[in-house]
Design brief:
Radius of gyration of chain A: 23 Å
Helix content of chain A: 25-40%
Function (chain B): Component of the ubiquinol-cytochrome c reductase complex (complex III or cytochrome b-c1 complex), which is a respiratory chain that generates an electrochemical potential coupled to ATP synthesis.
InterPro entries (chain B): Cyt_b/b6_C, Cyt_b/b6_C_sf, Cyt_b/b6_N, Cytb/b6-like_sf, Cytochrome_b, Cytochrome_b_C_euk/bac, Cytochrome_b_N_euk/bac, Di-haem_cyt_TM
Family (chain B): Belongs to the cytochrome b family.
Oligomer: heterodimer
Structural class of chain A: mainly alpha
Subcellular location (chain B): Membrane
Strand content of chain A: 5-15%
Pfam families (chain B): Cytochrom_B_C, Cytochrome_B
Number of helices of chain A: 6
Helix content of chain B: 55-70%
Number of helices of chain B: 17
Strand order of the largest sheet of chain A: 5-6-7
Chain lengths: 254, 422
């Protein structure tokens, strides 16, 4: 219990209400420009599609996204045929068949993204003991969200600052809590060749993959905000009518 | 107008039923003719708002329960299935998760309104105590609901809070094992928390019915804190207060919708999107915001049992409030000294909440200790003494006097409180 004394979280008090906004002793995470931020912001589909390319070619060699059905990608502009083609590019374990054996079959859009390792132990064994976390909810599971993801992916430094000794197999990252991380610097200039011809700088790649991870963490975000605008407009009109009714009714009281 | 008389129903079916089971007479009496003091302000709407929140929570919770699976191996994934695959599942879950915070906001405002206007004083003691039980039931329900998604904060929050009971000598550890259904927070714990999270809202509903029944015996308090003396002091609940409360509810829903649609995870913690892992302790375990003042009190006492007792005592002291406050005057409007201490208490509660979110060390630990000491000082020492020492301002003769004549000595004490158009 008393160990909880180390608990730290800065809470924002707005209107007497403590928001769980986070700061902590960690490094300041710079804010980026996102097309999906703000009340009317929507996911940049082209960027998210490029991000999917990075996810498929780079991230997915170690990371899973096992909560995400492939059909989710319809939300960033892939049509049905493209989804089928994307899904068919994956081998999925199915079965047991009539002989009682498991077998592999091409994926369909209803399948979830297959994981690169059969289980966590296999993932650890292949990654120097570190477990590459599942990416399905990554954009919501870290303080700072997509800004943190961008900062993390661009925050690797080849040589740690003086006085910092890295443990074997670890890499230095400016933004990772504790700064030592098992994951290597993975985004290289032109490390991927974008299908749409966008120059693949490290910043561009980090931006695109962060947009994609934001999308898969919250596939209904655009729909949610659009509904929210309608709901709030409706409520404002209703509130106006209620107030007018109330004024009229109470004005007769004398 | 205000005095209830038997209504005449035109509909023959209604008439037939009502002569055998007078529910329509009861509804007419309690929600149509029920006399409300005509000077109540918008703070009186928060009872209705809290009631609406309970209904929203039960309705969304029921549908979520149809999709949720209370097993450690699939609980987290089943919540994500609701978010991704269930039609409008994301909406239901965000309405429910943020609804808990909104419910607490409404209830806390409702409670501070009661403190300011002395709504706990005779003859409303039982009404107030039922309210304290409602708060306790809400806290238990909210805590167990937060465990259900089985994220990191769910698991570690459950571990921390259930461990509090181990502070009690002799029986402590057996109680914790009994609560867990095992030797750590695990599947039996999750399973029973789900069952209790489903049950407690209905207990809450029953308490709310009793709370309302008790309210309708004494009638509502009002900003002047004096009793209604007759029909000239009141308005029938319907349509006057239904429309007024209705407007307040809609404004509150706008605030609520802002969170649901544009910042649904602002009041949550990112760690709860990481599946529960008994082997990895999060760097910072913090409860939901509405528990933070109590969390600060818990950590302010340098002894585990003392901390637990102080935390529960902070709520228990509220139940004793009708007898701790010795003043016969209800409303702060006529208690110039208590009014200042009321605001100090309100600030103290906010400071405790802030300290609860901070590390319990250094200056924040000191702040939490001073805040805790002041909290108990306010209720246990200040209130009993103040009632005897303070000289209240003269009370108006009736509610309608200042309202209708507009002014006099009351208006001076009432410092520009909007009295409605009445």
């Amino acid at each position: 219990m008393r160990s909880l004394k180390s608990a730290i979280l800065s809470a924002a008090f707005a209107l007497g209400l403590a928001g769980a906004a986070q700061a902590s002793e960690a490094v300041h995470i710079p804010k980026q420009e996102w097309s999906h931020s703000g009340v009317f912001g929507t996911i940049d589909k082209a960027s998210a599609q490029r991000g999917f390319q990075i996810f498929k070619e780079v991230c997915a060699t170690c990371h899973s996204a096992k909560l995400v059905p492939i059909r989710t990608l319809a939300g960033i502009g892939f049509n049905e045929d493209e989804l089928k083609a994307i899904a068919a590019g994956y081998e999925v374990q199915a079965g047991p068949n009539d002989a009682g054996e498991m077998f592999m079959r091409p994926g369909i859009p209803a399948d979830r993204f297959p994981s690169p390792f059969p289980n966590d132990n296999a993932a650890r064994a292949a990654n120097n003991g570190a477990l590459p976390p599942d990416l399905s909810l990554m954009a919501k599971a870290r303080v700072g969200g997509e800004d943190y993801l961008y900062a993390f992916l661009t925050g690797f430094e080849e040589n740690p600052p003086e006085g910092v000794t890295l443990m074997p197999g670890m890499n230095y990252n400016k933004y990772f809590p504790g700064h030592q991380v098992g994951m290597p610097n993975i985004l290289m200039p032109d490390g991927v060749t974008y299908a749409d011809g966008t120059p693949a700088t490290v910043q561009q790649q980090a931006h695109d993959i962060s947009t994609f991870l934001t999308f898969i963490a919250e596939p209904h975000m655009d729909a949610r905000k659009q509904m929210g605008v309608k709901v709030i407009l409706f409520l404002i009109v209703l509130a106006g009518l209620m107030y007018a009714t109330k004024r009229k009714l109470w004005s007769t009281l004398h | 107008m205000a005095q209830a008389h038997a209504p005449q129903f035109k509909n023959p079916v209604v008439k037939w039923i009502d002569s055998r089971l007078p529910i329509f007479t009861m509804l007419d009496h309690e929600y149509n003719q029920y006399p409300m003091p005509r000077n109540v302000n918008y703070l009186w709407a928060f009872g209705a708002i809290a009631g609406i929140m309970l209904v929203i929570m039960i309705a969304t919770g029921l549908v979520l329960a149809m999709q949720y699976a209370a097993h450690t191996t699939i609980a987290f994934d089943s919540v994500e299935r609701i978010m991704r695959d269930v039609n409008y599942g994301w909406l239901l879950r965000y309405v429910h998760a943020n609804g808990a915070s909104m419910f607490f906001i409404a209830v806390y405002i409702h409670m501070f309104r009661g403190l300011y206007y002395g709504s706990y004083k005779a003859p409303r003691e039982i009404l107030w105590i039922l309210g304290v039980f409602i708060l306790l039931a809400m806290m238990a329900t909210a805590f167990m609901g937060y465990v259900l998604p089985w994220g990191q904060m769910s698991f570690w929050g459950a571990t921390v809070i259930t461990n509090l009971f181990s502070a009690f000598p002799l029986v402590g550890d057996p109680i914790v094992t009994w609560l867990w259904g095992g030797f750590s927070v695990d599947n039996p714990t999750l399973n029973r928390f789900f069952a209790l999270h489903f049950l407690l809202p209905f207990v809450l509903l029953g308490l709310v019915v009793l709370h309302t029944a008790a309210l309708h015996v004494s009638g509502s308090n009002n900003p002047l804190g004096i009793d209604a003396k007759g029909p000239q002091d009141t308005v029938p609940f319907n349509p006057y207060v239904t429309v007024k409360d209705g407007f307040a509810v809609v404004v509150f829903l706008i605030f609520y919708a802002g969170f649901v649609f544009f910042a649904p995870n602002y009041l949550g913690h990112p760690d709860n999107y990481i599946p529960a892992n008994p082997l990895v302790t999060p760097a910072h375990i913090v409860p939901e915001w509405y528990f933070l003042p109590f969390y600060a009190i818990l950590r302010a006492i340098p002894d585990k049992l003392g901390g637990v007792l102080a935390m529960f005592g902070a709520i228990a002291v509220l139940a004793a409030l009708p007898w701790l406050d010795t003043s016969k005057v209800r409303s702060c409007k006529f208690r110039p000294i208590y009014r200042q201490f009321f605001w100090i208490l309100a600030i103290d509660a906010l400071v405790l909440g802030y300290a609860g979110a901070m590390p319990a060390e250094g200056v924040w630990l000191l702040v939490a200790r001073i805040g805790t000491a002041y909290y108990f000082f306010h209720f246990l020492i200040l209130l009993p003494l103040l009632g005897k020492l303070e000289r209240p301002l003269p009370l108006p003769a009736s509610i309608c006097e200042p309202v209708l004549k507009g002014g006099g000595r009351v208006a001076a004490g009432a410092h520009a409180k909007p009295m409605e158009k009445a």
